[in-house]
Amino acid sequence: MNVLLFGGFLGSGKTSIILQVARYLVKGFSKQQLESDKPSLVIIENEVGETGIDDKILKAEGLNVRELIAGCICCTLNAELTVCLNEIQEELSPQWVIIETTGMAFPHTIAETIAKYGKGIDSLKTIVVADAERWDELSTIMPDLIEEQIVKANIILLNKIDCLEPEQVCGVKESIRRINPSALFYAISAHDEVNPQIWRTAVTYCE
Amino acid sequence: MSEWSTKHSGPAIFSETQTLGFLEKVTSEKIQQSLILWVKEISDWSKDKAYLVGHIKVFVEGLENLWLSSTGRSINIKHSQGWSEWTADMVTLNVTAIVFGTSKKVLEEVAQERLKACFNFGTELYK
Ligand SMILES: Nc1nc2c(ncn2[C@@H]2O[C@H](COP(=O)(O)OP(=O)(O)O)[C@@H](O)[C@H]2O)c(=O)[nH]1
Ligand SMILES: [Mg+2]
């Protein structure tokens, strides 16, 4: 089971990106995988509030989605997430699991828990989405949260670059690089079809 | 910088599922306009008060679906294929607004009251 753990602030574009990555992965599935009753890709949505919304978008695409609703935003449901992951492993053992964490979660803390207690995991990569449009605002108002989310990411996707001028994108890239110089870095716009080469690299890097 | 941001206190969350019934059939266009207005009003209210919008999201469930999403700036709209031609006598709304700087109680009051005002055309709340 290969796990892609998505993090990044509220509204940064995690769900929009997961839709594209999911389509990319499904395209690569064999006929046998597609016809099997067991899905080869399962998505876990960790949302806050009583009502899930992003899970409904993903389900409307025909994807297999498990919901984990956190009543409280600071509760990242670390333990429940691991239990859920282990259930999926036992019941379905899919090739891929994508986890979307809440926009307030620290993905690397969740990754550590999963790495420690998760069963049957062949690979685990943390992908953090940064919101280019709101970078200046968010990194001024809540610098600790934003830095903490990015600092240990394996892959960083700077999203919504359509909202900035190219020079501004370079500026944001530099500040991100100062926080995390070693991650794979891509600047994208999930509103358009993202170059599949980016998904290929990210996914291969994860296998 | 305001106190809430430096203290890193959590945001207020308004998150609900409501089923609305209409006395007469309502076009999808009218539902969409009402919900866009609601998202705008929550954004503007947050801006006026210098609060920070985490996100505002709406998902309409009926025979057709509508998805609205915003971070307090522009509003993104997506819908199912037959949405534009649809007329409804009933819809289920899933709405979430996450706002930093205010309390759950205040956000809930504002969000509920504005939602009611945006659907001021022969609407009955079922749930
Ligand atoms: N301009 C622009 N908006 C985007 C892009 N990607 C996502 N969005 C919008 O940002 C908002 C949040 O996106 P979503 O995928 O729900 O983010 P999540 O809350 O992190 O899951 C939505 O209104 C999206 O339409 C992008 O590349 N450019
Ligand atoms: Mg999401």
From TrEMBL, chain A:
Residues 3-185 form the CobW/HypB/UreG nucleotide-binding domain. SUPFAM superfamilies: P-loop containing nucleoside triphosphate hydrolases. Gene3D superfamilies: P-loop containing nucleotide triphosphate hydrolases. It holds the Pfam family cobW. Signal peptide: none annotated. It comes from the Bacteria. GO terms for cellular component: cytoplasm. InterPro entries: CobW/HypB/UreG_nucleotide-bd, P-loop_NTPase, Zinc-reg_GTPase_activator. PANTHER family: COBW DOMAIN-CONTAINING PROTEIN, COBW-RELATED. This is CobW/HypB/UreG, nucleotide-binding domain. It comes from Desulfosporosinus lacus DSM 15449. The lineage of its organism: Bacteria, Bacillati, Bacillota, Clostridia, Eubacteriales.
TrEMBL record, chain B:
It comes from the Bacteria. This is Uncharacterized protein. The lineage of its organism: Bacteria, Bacillati, Bacillota, Clostridia, Eubacteriales.
